[in-house]
Each structure stands twice: as structure tokens, then as C-alpha cells.
Amino acid sequence: MDLYKLLQDVKNNQISIEDAEMQLKKLPYEDMGFAKLDHHRSLRSGFGEVVFCQGKAIEHLIHIYQRFYEHDTNVLGTRATKEQYEEVKKALPVVEYDALSHILSIQKKEINKTGCIAVCTGGTADIPVAEEAAQTAEFFGSKVLRIYDVGVAGIHRLLSKLDEIHSANCVIAVAGMEGALGSVLAGLVDKPVIAVPTSVGYGASFGGVSALLTMLNSCAEGLAVVNIDNGFGAGYMATQINRLAVRAE
Amino acid sequence: MDLYKLLQDVKNNQISIEDAEMQLKKLPYEDMGFAKLDHHRSLRSGFGEVVFCQGKAIEHLIHIYQRFYEHDTNVLGTRATKEQYEEVKKALPVVEYDALSHILSIQKKEINKTGCIAVCTGGTADIPVAEEAAQTAEFFGSKVLRIYDVGVAGIHRLLSKLDEIHSANCVIAVAGMEGALGSVLAGLVDKPVIAVPTSVGYGASFGGVSALLTMLNSCAEGLAVVNIDNGFGAGYMATQINRLAVRAE
Amino acid sequence: MDLYKLLQDVKNNQISIEDAEMQLKKLPYEDMGFAKLDHHRSLRSGFGEVVFCQGKAIEHLIHIYQRFYEHDTNVLGTRATKEQYEEVKKALPVVEYDALSHILSIQKKEINKTGCIAVCTGGTADIPVAEEAAQTAEFFGSKVLRIYDVGVAGIHRLLSKLDEIHSANCVIAVAGMEGALGSVLAGLVDKPVIAVPTSVGYGASFGGVSALLTMLNSCAEGLAVVNIDNGFGAGYMATQINRLAVRAE
Amino acid sequence: MDLYKLLQDVKNNQISIEDAEMQLKKLPYEDMGFAKLDHHRSLRSGFGEVVFCQGKAIEHLIHIYQRFYEHDTNVLGTRATKEQYEEVKKALPVVEYDALSHILSIQKKEINKTGCIAVCTGGTADIPVAEEAAQTAEFFGSKVLRIYDVGVAGIHRLLSKLDEIHSANCVIAVAGMEGALGSVLAGLVDKPVIAVPTSVGYGASFGGVSALLTMLNSCAEGLAVVNIDNGFGAGYMATQINRLAVRAE
Amino acid sequence: MDLYKLLQDVKNNQISIEDAEMQLKKLPYEDMGFAKLDHHRSLRSGFGEVVFCQGKAIEHLIHIYQRFYEHDTNVLGTRATKEQYEEVKKALPVVEYDALSHILSIQKKEINKTGCIAVCTGGTADIPVAEEAAQTAEFFGSKVLRIYDVGVAGIHRLLSKLDEIHSANCVIAVAGMEGALGSVLAGLVDKPVIAVPTSVGYGASFGGVSALLTMLNSCAEGLAVVNIDNGFGAGYMATQINRLAVRAE
Amino acid sequence: MDLYKLLQDVKNNQISIEDAEMQLKKLPYEDMGFAKLDHHRSLRSGFGEVVFCQGKAIEHLIHIYQRFYEHDTNVLGTRATKEQYEEVKKALPVVEYDALSHILSIQKKEINKTGCIAVCTGGTADIPVAEEAAQTAEFFGSKVLRIYDVGVAGIHRLLSKLDEIHSANCVIAVAGMEGALGSVLAGLVDKPVIAVPTSVGYGASFGGVSALLTMLNSCAEGLAVVNIDNGFGAGYMATQINRLAVRAE
Amino acid sequence: MDLYKLLQDVKNNQISIEDAEMQLKKLPYEDMGFAKLDHHRSLRSGFGEVVFCQGKAIEHLIHIYQRFYEHDTNVLGTRATKEQYEEVKKALPVVEYDALSHILSIQKKEINKTGCIAVCTGGTADIPVAEEAAQTAEFFGSKVLRIYDVGVAGIHRLLSKLDEIHSANCVIAVAGMEGALGSVLAGLVDKPVIAVPTSVGYGASFGGVSALLTMLNSCAEGLAVVNIDNGFGAGYMATQINRLAVRAE
Amino acid sequence: MDLYKLLQDVKNNQISIEDAEMQLKKLPYEDMGFAKLDHHRSLRSGFGEVVFCQGKAIEHLIHIYQRFYEHDTNVLGTRATKEQYEEVKKALPVVEYDALSHILSIQKKEINKTGCIAVCTGGTADIPVAEEAAQTAEFFGSKVLRIYDVGVAGIHRLLSKLDEIHSANCVIAVAGMEGALGSVLAGLVDKPVIAVPTSVGYGASFGGVSALLTMLNSCAEGLAVVNIDNGFGAGYMATQINRLAVRAE
């Protein structure tokens, strides 16, 4: 239904006020132009689309990527398997795959990056999740500073990087095992820290729950947590924060 | 040890280079003036000091508040009991107590508030935690918009407040029970949402764990979580974000 | 805002179509008459209001009860303490309190009861939760058949009551400890069974979690579960089902 | 033993009263014609038989399906694997398999469908469980309205479907991840809502436990929960409710 | 209904066979004399009655004890509080209370004890639960051998008692903390061992769950477990086993 | 060291009393002939040996079976895989494998079976665990009565078998899902009931934990529990009880 | 029985070798002088006795303390309440109570302290547990270095104390909340670190479980963990290690 | 930056004191020669390097091993798969692989072993973890005494080995299932016991959590715990303790 048309009809007496009122009340929300209900679009606009590839059928995936490709849209696909990549590539040779972060992307337009987000990891095994966070942030236009393998068992390496980390608007702390990196970072820097527990570990690490609890119980100020292995979520929220800060520069 | 003095001694040949090098390597970190290790001070500077009152002895508390009072410093004490308030008041009649948020404060200087943080709750029982968040944010100079009792069981009330919420730089979602408010808000607004699960509930709510899990598993973008009932933590991080945004205005 | 008035203004050229469209899009949802968003009202209409008393301040409670009393509305207050009762009674001597179910009620109008809901318990310790369910169902106009203390350790007592239970449109099974009553009932009757685990028990009963898991894992067909001790929730849903059935008689 | 025959013998003095009493007391329950102990039969009668295929051996499965086929009985097999399907098909080419819901069925007689059950999902990944629920309900004679992918992260899509959902006698809410769909639906409609948590998710979703807890802790009225991924259980109970309602039309 | 009377009526043609068959099928199970459904009576017969005192109202308790007293029945009341004892004693001075085991008993008839059950504890803190087990076993006619404080941290004390323990027909192992006593005993003796985890402990003992898990995971043969702190259950089952053995002597 | 020899040397003055005393105190326990430390041998003696096959290497397994075979010993191997069977069979064609119970056995001598143990299951999926229990009991000389698929969802089937079950000295209740069979049996019979939770189930059954909790929380008397899927443990303990009873016949 | 006497009898032909052998095999272990079974005595010898006061009855406690006092033995009582202290003091005025560590002690002999153990805490709330550890270590003769409130949120304070910590033979890390102190210390020093999680915290700290998991999952080398709040256990084991090291000096 | 050079410049007036002070404060920590921050090096020095192989890419692994090989360094690689071994061997035929402990090592220099560590296991299935501990300890220069399969179900075998165990400076107790070995050992010996829970078990052993809890809750003194299956961690810490003791000999 067309709202403008309805009001015109009221004006032109082609519909009674009572009938128009009835129609408006039954109006499907979406048709009324409730763009405000999808404000996320504003963040993404001019950047591209995100696809959660995990569990998606190949044909479905090819279809999605082709449609975006035809509209000249950049695409960031998270949690893609190598098999998905190989099949999509046959249909659309332009796609690129990062085996570390499991990101399957098309970049048709150059992305202009601003501000700064620091992405830190406790160990080398946390890097895949960190790369998901970092590449998500870059996709949406943030500069990213990567500082990997600076966990508490080698805390002097972290201390030597502090000046660099202070230059960022937001810090992402990615760590499994004991997960103390989030606390340590929030204790050392005065910017918002988003902690990502990873499922890296064995024994009583319970697939990341141990790191998650450590991060939630941090006594340092300025730390919030996303789900286990949720690099995308951290990268997205860090971008929201970075944008707010960049407007000021 | 005085670093300047040491270097002078090197210059004046009163200490050999070898000995000076040795002393520098053994130097306690703090004495070197590692102010950069307490960057949080920059956020707080000009605002005041925070005291975590829970479990602190009365005498100890009185001592702390008196010292700050004498230095004309504003104080925000969280998780204070009524008993603590009454005893501190005897010694220092200027303290004020908010029975809802359990905040025990001294405000000697007017606080200039800027930007905007929206604090929302699912039910009325979540308000004490929300107030801890809101008053923390205000203490550090953020304007706060309070939108309470807009949980998913009455989602139309939330929808009617969306325009107001969109004006904020950061949203805090406080909810117990099923804790879905965080997801709903992150699905509707494009600003960072900090979710605070509360221990409100009964049965299988497990003291807030149910709400915590809901929030961690949100499929909406732009959401991070702090510990159960940690209003202070949410208010602090929201302030960090709000400051980044305010610099731009 | 008045929707009818707006459309009249459009018709009378007192507002441009563009401006009317703008106003409609920004219109708070509630003001548009979205009564359909509170369909629960239809269930309750003519019956009365529910108050969740747990944790509510005395003054607040007195205020609520007085307002409903003045409007000749029946009130069902759940989880009221004896202290709350005694204070409210001072202000409003007409309130009644059931110490077993912790229900604090005002009944100004006779309730006409129809259909039938069977409320069964495993043991005598489960009766408080069962009474919350039963009295909730009665408050909303359902007849209730109480069959208590028929748990699996004395299954012959349950078998002797089967004919009575078959006469109900819906069965509520309230049980703690091993919680097998829900399964047994769903295996014996062909009506929907709503199972309520209770926190009754000790040792590895974990405050009702053991009974909850038993009920969720039932291999009998036609069983769904509400939260631990949530008699109100079971009574409410059973009433919804009973109403659907009663329309047929 | 034949009860009628026994009584005849009593009458004809071919057995003493004492012996007859003894025999009656030792009588296996089933032989006494305790049809009332399998009332579920009445729900299914005229519809067909259900087979839980998971873990069943191929030969066993073929035997069951053939026997039902020869008796002209419809069969609904849940949780069948593709391998089971392919083997059964060799012996009985008439079987049909729905790869999405994992249902392996024979439909020899047309099913007359009445009433209405709405089956909603939070995301696309929840559809297999939803289809198990929907096809179960259809198998037992319910009309089903499918409304998929209307989770809280895109709540405006759900709102636009509310009128359709209100036409149902019972609503099934299928959701994983944060599982808030159940609460949202129960807050918006006044019919019984059966919530099915799904094991869809990652990180701290714990194979559906997070969604399960969310649903149990819902503060909306009129919601009960079945086991994780238990689409069949939800479809069965919804059918019981739908039948009660349909009798009225 | 009287079964004998019914059969007489059939014989005397005062009821048709068809009507008698109908009545028999609707007959409440209990009325048919299904004594076999309460076989536990046979264990208790000649011994007395058991009352679970926890949570029972004083008046209710007094009523129960008085009735048994008047029938010359021994009574074993478990989990009685001192308050319950003092009130019951006022009405019935003959009751006795064991503050250690929380057992409130009346012994009107001498109990003849046979066979042997060994009750062992890991520490002194486990003795209250052990006494509940021991006194339950004695109440039902078992001789009991008490061997307390022989946990694994002092395993040599246990070894020195092995000959005595071997004389029993059944062993009860009561232990909290690490709960290894059950395993050790089952590894050393060839009689059934019933393990009772206790809620004694702190830290990660989780109210007895740690001891429970230890006992369930025992790699020793001939061990089964009852609920945390369930001394009564262990004493009862040990008595069943002891009786089977005693018949042989 | 040879104890007899030592004493002889004392007698013959070939060693001083002091030295003999010293040697005795340092004597390795085993060498002293502590046969009493392996009393389990007495249960097994004349029956055979048990092998826990799970995880054992093929060569190791073949070696064990061959050694027992050469000594004319019966062997009961639990948790053997089909692969283990096939490899052992090549070396020792006499071994037999039961694919249901995963038992790999050699029976060289006829086993004389006495007494009676009833083994009941809730569903057909519990039969593998039940067979492990039943065959273990038979291996050690117990008669076994198998009563399968009598769970609470079809409780009338169980009731019709009660007389048979009463003839046993001990009852084993094997059940997964909601696990209520143990409670129901203990409520109906007066013999010791050993409950075995199984890992059968899905959703919130947590690999048998739900059934385990149900069984531990049973309010019926005379029930103890072994570990999840531990059919061997139940069969072994039931045999111990059966032996005690059989001595009486 | 007297072993020497027995051997003498053998020698003197007052008992046959066969009878002596029999007696030796049945000999209670303890009587054989198995002092080696209580090797812990060697650690304590010359230091004193330990009493676990928690839950002990007053009379019992007084009795124990008096007996040790009369034997001039030092006593270390852990987890004593203030009430226990006050009652024991009436009978034995010499006892001393440390309200912080809840230690109730008698020190009759001076303790000579050697070596060094560093006891560190994350926050001030962890001090009571740390003091239990420290005073236990001192009681058994270790020098203790206390370094409190050096948690990761203020890591620079910890770094400035490193040289002192390096002087210890063993480090005890006491921390609640996120519990990262153990990792940080083990990453920085090359001595064994014993980590004690404390139950300090709120929200998702779960009474110390969060800190416990953090410590177990530490990726730093040289760290082991004791139970939550188990200061005594840490102090005892640290003393064992310190003694081994001191022997070398 | 070169600290010596900077001080020289100060002395030679080539830099002002103010500038030198500034540079020192900004100096990356590492560049200052903070060797003291890697004290672990001192333990390893002269012994070799450790590689955690799990999850490492083959090329990466080959690179690491080749570099160490060229520097004549011994290498201990833990958690290596057979596949990793075979690939590394192709490039570097000198590597050796122990399939039991999954250790992939190069030993170029003879290791001189001192002191003694006893490594005990409960069952044979715990040996792989025990070997990881034992070989780690040997790699760093400790003598190791292996005492396997001495769990509590066969406690007499453990007792016969006590004298040997007492000769060690530190005991490692490796056990799964009920995990009681740690307690038993700590109760019998007076040296520090490091307990390693293993993931060996089934049913309610929860991948080692049951054994972990048993060990944490031990009431024996002198016991600390490392993570599930963490043989390396136990071997490392035992080596630290052994070294402290050896210095004394």
C-alpha cells in the first residue's frame, strides 16, 4: 500500500475518512515505510552486505553472492568453509577466501578506512577469531592495529606495545584459556575494551566458558564481553564506537 | 629514586655508566613515573573518585569519605548498605544516599553533563541496577535518558519510545528474567548497546545466568554484555563511548 | 494525536499530504489505537487484574489494591508475604489471604466458572504451587478439580483417580523431587498436560532443576513445561486452553 | 482371560465366587480391557501411526512401514536419516522423505485438516525443527500457518504478521540463539504459545540450553516449553489444543 | 464397591453379566484389593511406621505421632528439628529425639535385630547422615556395626577394621568432601556397598555434588549410590539386602 | 620374601628377633599373602574373569583372551567394538560377540544359574545397557528375567508384569530420557532396585544426566543408582545381592 | 598384639610357625607399628597440631584445646567463629583469635622460621584467605612475605614488587573475581606458584568457580591450584616446598 | 635503543638530561633488557625448548624444529599427532616420537638427571597423561619413578610401593574416573602431591570434571591440582620443586 496515495484519496474524497482510518490501523508496519526500524542500514550503507555462511547451502550462497556482485556491492561472508569457497568460486571467480578467518568476500569498491581499533590476542591460536573481528572492522571502514600473542604468560610483550594501543578508539581483546587479557588491557588503557572469549583450550576450559567467566568477572573498568568466538560481533560494535569517535576528528 | 638525579650523576661522573645501567634495570617500575599505567585517571580527572562500598568496614569507609571531602572531591560509592550510610552520615552529614541504587555520594562540585546515554529496563525490578548505571554515567558527566519497564512482554511500549532512544550515543539495556531486551534494542537502534543481565527472577533464572546467556547469544548486531547486576560497569563503559562521541559535537 | 482529526485536516486542505505522511510515520504506535497489541486484555476482561506482589513495597501495594477496589475490580495478587497481607489489610480490610498459595485477593464480583482443569501434585509439599495454579485458573473462570499427593511412589492412588482426570480439558502436573508425575499423567490421559516442576526436594534436586529436566525429557506425548514453581503461569495457560474448549459446549 | 466368560461361569456355578474373586484380583490389567489406559489412541484414531526412526535398524524400520502400509495406515516417521529413507524406499517405493524435517512418511488416505496452528521461527536455521512441528500437526488433522524468520533481531517483520497469527488457536514458537521469540509472541497474542528451543547457535548457546532458559524465564503470560529440538512434541500438544477449540466451531 | 457382593449378584441374577462387566472395568483399582501394590508394607510389618518430618506443621506432626502411639506402633521420624521435638514432646512425653541424626522416635515394642550392616564414615562431620542410616536400619531389625572417621586421608585406620567390616551383609559408605570412601570400601570388600554422598565440605564441593560424582565414577565393583545426605534411603535399602541374607542363616 | 621361611629362621636362630621384626615392618604388603585384600575373587571364583575392552589395543586383547582360554577360564569382555571382535576371532575362533550388549565372551564351562534378577527397561533404546547388566549377572551365576520396554509412557504394560517382577531377589531398572522407571518400580516392589540411567535421549537429557538426577531424587524407598550406562556395575551388584538371598533357599 | 613377643614365642617354641604365620596375616595393620603410614607427623613434629574448627561443638573444641595446652603443644585452629573463640577463651584465656583469618591459636613455644614464601592477593577482599595461608605457613616454620592488593587491574603495582617476590621459594596467589593473578605471577617468576581461588565476587563469579577455572586454564607454566578459599591447603603445601628448599641453604 | 649508549650520550653532553629522562620513560620495556621478566629461562637454560604442537601447521612445526636443531638445542614437543610426526620426520629424520605420550622430541645433548619425582596412575588408561608428565620432568633434568595402575580399587598394590614413593621429592598423581588416587597419596606421603585429573571415564565423569572435583575437595593435606590431562604442567611444576630440593643434596 502507498501511504501518499491513500492520503491523496482522502483529499480527493475517493475514500471516506472512516475507511482510511481503518486501513491505516490495519496497515502492515513495513509498508508504512518504517525505515527507522532498520537503522542498522545506516551503518552499513556505502559499505556492503554481511552474509553468515555457516550451514548455508551452496546454491543458496552462490545466488546471494551473485546478486550482490551484480549490484556492485561489497560482501563480507563470515564462517565460510573451504568447500563453500571452492564451489562459490566456480560460479563467481572474483570471490576471495581467507582461510585463517574463514571470511569469503567480494570487494568491488575500495573501502576508505578511518579512526583506529586495536585487536589484541592472548595466543597464536586466537588469531582466527581476531581476524574475523579485524576484517569485519575494516570492511565497515575502520583502520585496524593488530597486536597478536601478547597474553599474560608473556605480559612484558604486551607492556612494550602500550603506546600503540593507546592510539586506538576501541580495543578488542581476544583470548581463550584463562582469558585474562581483557582484564589486563582494561586495566592499562582508558578506551572501551570489547573482550572476545575463544574456545581455544582443553581440560576445564569448557569450550570457552572459562575465558568467558574470567572476562565477565573482570574487576577492571571499561570492559564488556561478546559471545565465545564471536569475532564478527566484536568487530561490528567496535566499528560503531570508532565511528562515533571519528566524527570528532 | 629520582631519575633526573641519576642522570645528573652520570653527567657529573658521580656514577659510572655501568652502575647507572644496573640501577635503571632494577628500578621499581612505579618510581619511573609510569603515569601512563594509570590512564583511567584521565577519564575521572575533574569528576571525582569511585568507592566500592560492599563489605568495607564502617571506620574504613568514614576515613575514605572524609579524606575525599577534605580535598573537595566528588565521591560516588556503589553498593552501600543503609547501615553504612547511617554510620558515615554521623561523621559526615553531607553524604547523600539513594536507597534504590545503593549509591552513597558526596557532590561538592557541580557536574557538567554532555552527550546522551539511554538506560532502559525490562521491568520495574531491574530499576536498582539501572540506577547504578545511570548515576555512574551522570557522575562522570554524561546526560542520561531513563526509559524503564519496556520489556518484551509489553513491546509496544518500547516501540513508542524509539525516537527518543535514537538520540543517544550509547544504550544500556538492563533486564532479568528472559533478558531479551538487549536483543530487541540492538535490533532496533544503530548505536552500541551494553546489556546488563540482572539477578531478578525465580525458578530456572539461576540468579541472572539465564538473562546473561540470552544476551550473549543475541543474534542482533552491536551488543556486548557486562556481568550480572554490574550497573557500574555498564555506566562506566557507556561514558567512555559517550565521551568519544561528544568530542565531535 | 487524533488520527481521525488528521485525516479530516488532509481532506480540508489544512495540512499538506507531505506533512500528514511525515506525521503518520513518526506517530507513536500506541496513539494509533494499537489495541491489538494487548490482546491479553480480552482474556482478563470481566475477570480482574493480576498483581505480582513479590518484592513490591507496601505503600506501592496498598495504592494498587485501593485503586482496583475503587473500580470494583477483582484482584489476584501472587507471591504475597504474610507481612504484605497484614499491612494491606490495615488499609483495606476487605482483602483476603491464602497462606498456602500466598495469594492476596479481593473478590468483589462473583466469578462464573466453566469447563474443567485438573490440578495434580506428586506430594503434599507441592500443594502451595498447585494452589497458585488452581486459584489462578478459578480467578479467570475455570472450574478446577484438585487431585493431590498422587506421585509415582504411590502410583495406585493416581490410577484410581483416572476417570475423574479424564473429564478435564487440561491437566496441570505439579511435582518436585524426581518429577515423574508429568510423564505418568501424559502417558495416561489424552489432554494437554502442563507440568510445573517445584523446588521441593533436597540433595541433588538442585532447587527444582532435577524435576524440570525430568519433565522436559518426558517420552510421553502431549506435555509442556513452565518454570520452576510457576503455578501462575500454568494456571493461566490452562485457562487459555480451557476457554478454547468451553466455547464448544 | 475372558471377563465375560468368567462372569458367565460364576452365574452358571462353574466357578465358586471365591475363586472368581481370586482370579479377578490377579488378572493382568491389560486383559481386563483397560482401553482407557491408552487414550492417546483416540487422538490418533483415523489418522495414522507415528514412528521414532532415530537409531532404528533398517530391517526393523522396513518391517514396521510394510506392516502399516498393508493395513492402509498413514505413517509419520520422525528423525529419519537419508540412509534410512533410501533403504526403506527400495522395499517400499511409496514412502516419501522430507530432507528438511527428516520426516519419512506414507500417506495412503487424504487427511482432512481443520482449525489453525501458527508455527513461527526466529531464523532460517530453526526451520527443520519447525517443519517437524508443522508436519506433525498436519498429520493429525490441523491446518498450519507457517511464519518463518521473524526473530527479535528483525521484530518489524513479526509485527507485520500479527493479524495472521491471531487467527490461530495455538502458536508454536521455534527459536535458538537467544530464544526470545517465545516471549515476544506470548506478549503479543492471547492464545497458548508452545515454545521449542532449538540447538541452533554457537559459543555460549550450549546446544539449546540458553534458548531453553530464556523461554522458561519468560515474563509473558501463556507460554509453556518443550524439550530442545522437540518439534514433534510441540506439534502433538498444539494439535490437542486445536482439537479442543475446533469442537466449538 | 464390594467385589464379592458383585459376584454374588451375578450368580443370583440380580445384575446382568453385561452390567457386571461394565462395573468391573470402571472399578477403582484400590477398591479391588490391590494390596500387592503396596508391597513395602511387608518389609515394615511388625516394625513400625516412618514419618518424614521436614517441613511438616507441628499440629500435623502431633496428630500423626498420637495416632501411631495409640495403635502401639513404633515410629521413626526423620529430619525432625529440635523445635518439632519440643512441641511434640509436650503432647506426647514418650517421644525421644536424637539431636545428632535428627530422628524423633517412639519405641513401644522391642525390636529384634538380626544380620549385620556396617556403616562407615569418612570424617566426623558425616556422622549425622550415618546415624540416620544406622538408626533406620536398626528400626527395621538390622544389627549395625558403626565404623566412623576412616576416610582416605587416614586410610590405615580403615585397613585395621577390615575384618570387622567383612562380617557384614551390606556396607554403607557415608562421605563428603572428596567422597572416595565408597570406592575404597568396594575395592576391599565383596559385599554390596551403598554410598551416601554428604553435603559436608566447602569450596568446589558444591553441596555434595563432588562426592556424588566421585561415587558414581568409582571403578570399583559392587557400589551403588543414593542421593546426597539420604541416610534414610541407604539404611532402608541395606535392610532389604540384609533381610535377603538373613533368611539364609 | 617368604613369611614361613622367616619364622623358621627366627626359630633356628638364623636371624635375630630384632632383625626379623625390622623385616616384618618393611615387608611389602602383598608378599605377606594379603589374599583378604582381594575378596572380590571369592565372588568370581569358579565363574571366570572380566575384561573391560574399551580402548584396549587389539594385540593386548588377544593376549589376554588367549591366556584365559588356555586356563579353561570363562571370559566376559564388556564394551568391545565389532573391530576388536573381528581381530580377536582371527586368533581365537571360539570367542562370541553380542552386538547388542557389546560383550565379547568365551564360555568354556557351563554356568549354573540360581536365584532371580529382574532387568527392566523404559524403552527399546535402553536394551543394550540392560543386556550388559543381564549378561553380567548370568555370567556370575544369576538367573535373569528380562522385561523390556515398560517405561512410564506405557505404564499399563509394566503393571501387567508385576507378579513376575515380584519373584526376583533384586530388580535392575534401566532407563534414559526422563528415567522415572526406577521410581515406579521401587514404589511397586519390595526388593532392592538398582537404577541405571542411560545416555539415551536428546535435547536437555545431557547424555543421561537428566535420568540420573531423576533416579537420585526418587521419593520411593529402596532404590540406589549406578553411573550412566553402567550395566556391568548394576549386574555385578545385583549378583552380590542375589547370592546373599540364594544362600537361604 | 606385640610383634616382638610373638617372635620370641616362635623362637622359644611356645607357638608353632604355622600359628604365628596365621596371626601375622590377621594382624591389625596399626599394631604392627606402621608409623610410616602417618608421615605427615614428621612435618608437624616440633611445630604443633592443627584443628579444623568449622562446625565443631564448643565443648568438643574446649576439650581439644585444653588437652593440647596441657601437653605444651602449639595449636593452629582454622575457620573458627567469633562465638567459638569467646567460649573457648572462657575456659582457656591463653587462646588468641585473629578475626581476619578466623584462626584460633595457642602459641606456647616460639617458632623458628626459615626460608621464604610469598603470599600475594588480587584485592583487599582476598586477604582473609591469604592470612589463613600465611599464618599456616608461619605456624609450620616458614618465613612469609605478604604482598597484597596487586591484582591485574593495577598490574603496575605488582611489577614494582617483582624483585621481592623472586626471593621466595614458593609463591601463593590468592584471588577471586577474574582470578588472573595466578597466571600473571607464574608468567613472571620461576618458582612454583600455588593458586587459591576465593569466593569473593558477585554476578557470574559463582562463589569462586570463575576464578578456579581461570587458574586451571592458565597457560603459564609452574602453577597448581587448591580448592576455593582453601588458604590452609596452600599454606601447608607451600611449607612442604619451602622445607625442601631450605634443607639446601 | 641501547641503554648504555644513551647514558654515554648523557655523560658526553650529546643529549640533555631532560631529553634522556623523556626517552627512558617512553622506552619499550623489552629493550631495557628486562631479562628478569623471563625468569623461566633460567629453569630451561641448558635443557632445551618446549613446543606445544597441538593445532600447529606442519610447515610451521618443521621450521621450529629445524631452527632448534641447527642451534644444537634439545626439543620437547607435546601433544603432537602421528601425522605431524611423519611430516616433520621427512624434513628432519632425527626427531623421535612417543606414540603413548604424543611427545615429538629431538635430543642432541645428553640430559643429566638428578633428584626424584614419583609419577603414579590410577589405571592403565591414565598412562598417556602420566608419560607426558614423566618425560617433561626428565627433559628438564629430573629422575622419574614410574608407578602405574595403583588406583583405589586395588589399593593394596599402592601400599606395597609406598617405600619407593617416599624416596621422591614430589609426587604426581594421575587419575580419571573417581580420581581418588591424589587423596590417597597425599594421605600416605609427606611430600607435595600434584594431582592431574584425566578425561578417562564415561557416564557422569564429564570429561574429567568428576576427577577434578574429587582432587580439589581432598581432605588430605599437601595436594594441589592442575588442569584436566595437563601432564606437562604437572611435570614442569614437579621439576621446579625437585630442583629446589636437589640444591640441598
From TrEMBL, chains A, B, C, D, E, F, G, H:
Segments passing through the bilayer: none
Recorded superkingdom: Bacteria
Listed GO MF terms: hydrolase activity
Pfam short name (any one): AIRC
Alphabetical list of InterPro entries matching this protein: P2CMN_synthase_LarB (IPR039476), PurE_dom (IPR000031)
NCBIfam families: LarB
Gene Ontology biological-process entries: 'de novo' IMP biosynthetic process
Name of the protein: 1-(5-phosphoribosyl)-5-amino-4-imidazole-carboxyl ate carboxylase
